[in-house]
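ok trying this again, last paste got cut off
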Amino acid sequence: MIRYLSTFVPSISSHTEALRRLSTSKADFHWTTEHENEFQKLKELLSKAPVLHYYYPSLPVTIQTDSSQTGIGSCLLQNGRPIAYASRALSKFEQRYAQIEKELLAVFYAVEQFHYYLYGQPVTVETDHKLLEQILTRSFDRISPRLQQLCLRLLRYNVLPKYTLGLKCSWQTRYLEPIFLMKYTQKKKMNFVYTLIQK
């Protein structure tokens, strides 16, 4: 049931971390107060109304992205309201990227996940990494090969980078940061996209 309704819970992976650890093959099953609190929290989250809003093609689109040591996440916004969420854990190899490379990877992952919302129209990408704003507007011959590759793949989108102080990225701060507690388990990436589209 949790997986079925996970599209309406932005930080589902952080709220199931202890329960996921308990379900691994090497873990001994000991139900503690931590598991009980997490279970009760999940029941509370699943009983609340979703916070997502409908997507309107006529309104401008904004994306907020961020990265951490273990994951990347993004939020699609219109008029400051969340339309969709997307996040994934980083592989062991990606975790060794420089921070600027993780930040640009988060932008690329976001525009790929929200391709049907963004393609063919300008999109403002808000990030709390000041250097990223300069890299996306700089000549490609002055950046590293990995950044060049990501920038070239972004060329098909009309990306308008905008630096936003970390604490001012309201939806990102409130909903995306807990998602970065995801673990890269069983050699498989965990991808989550949360969306609600008007019919």
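PB: full thing came through this time. Confidence is low (pLDDT under 50) at residues 170-190, 192-199.
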